[in-house]
Amino acid sequence: MLEELIKNKDKIHTRDISLATYPHKNGQVIVHGILKDKRHITIFDVTGQKRHPGVIHHMDVKLLIAPDPLRIIEAEASMPQVPMKECPETLDTIEGLKGLEIRSGFSGRLRELMGGPRGCTHLCHLVTVMGQEIVHGWLTQKRKDNPELPKNVESLTEAGFLVDSCRMWVKGGPKLEGLIKAIENQK
Questions:
Q1: pTM exceeding the 0.85 threshold for the entire prediction
Q2: What's the chain's Rg over C-alpha atoms?
Q3: Strand 54-66 to strand 50-51: parallel, antiparallel, or no bridges (unpaired)?
């Protein structure tokens, strides 16, 4: 139903997020995130000033990720396009990401470090969604070579962010049960 309602409509705003992971050395990866907000119509802002269509936010974040434990060891960010000249002042929150582990509670920790009045909601959102890319990109890099199965589920190094991360990874779910069967079959 909703598909039909937007079929012949023009967009008024879009947010594009691009995420990519690159191999580095010693099991490390570099995760790159770009956020671009674009206004497609002319508006009047809260002060009554006319604002024309165009890119409102363009933010770029690069994170160097180390394994065991999975964590951010270097962070860089830029804001090539922002709505206010003061916006880049919030880039100081990126420094606080160094040492942050990618595990349960990652998004909440980010909000504490760079959300709300401490930083920029758009920058915080970009780094938050980069969390999934960090996990998937690192796992992809790690699994390019066929690794040995863990001795048991408890010794799975990724257990901290996989188990209970979604319905497929809950105890008794298909991914965890498949892993348990694979471990039993190797014995």
A1: yes
A2: 20
A3: unpaired
AA identity, residue 129? V
Under 8 Å between Cβ of 107 and 116: no
Average pLDDT in the chain: 93
Q: Is 160 buried (19+), middle (13-18) or exposed (0-12) by CB count in 10 A?
A: middle
User: What SS3 class is residue 158?
Assistant: coil
Q: Which residue has the tokens 């997020």?
A: 17
Strand 43-44, strand 29-39: pairing: unpaired
Determine which of 45-59, 110-124, 133-147, 148-162 has the lowest per-residue pLDDT on average.
148-162
Please list, in sequence order, all residues whose beta carbon lies within 8 angstroms of the beta carbon of residue 173, skipping any fewer than 6 positions away: 167
With contact defined as beta carbons under 8 Å apart, do 77 and 63 qualify? no
How many residues can be counted in the chain? 187
**Alpha-carbon distances, residue 146 vs 141, 142, 143, 170 (angstroms):** 11, 9, 6, 24
Neighbours of 135 (CB within 10 A): 21
Q: Which residues pair with 22 in a beta bridge?
A: 30
By CB neighbour count within 10 A (0-12 exposed, 13-18 middle, 19+ buried), where does 106 fall?
buried
Distance CA 77, CA 29 (A): 16
**What are the tens digits of pLDDT across the range 167-182?**
988 888 998 888 888 8
Please enumerate in sequence order all residues whose Cβ is within 8 A of that of 104, keeping only pairs 6 or more positions apart, or say none: 160, 161
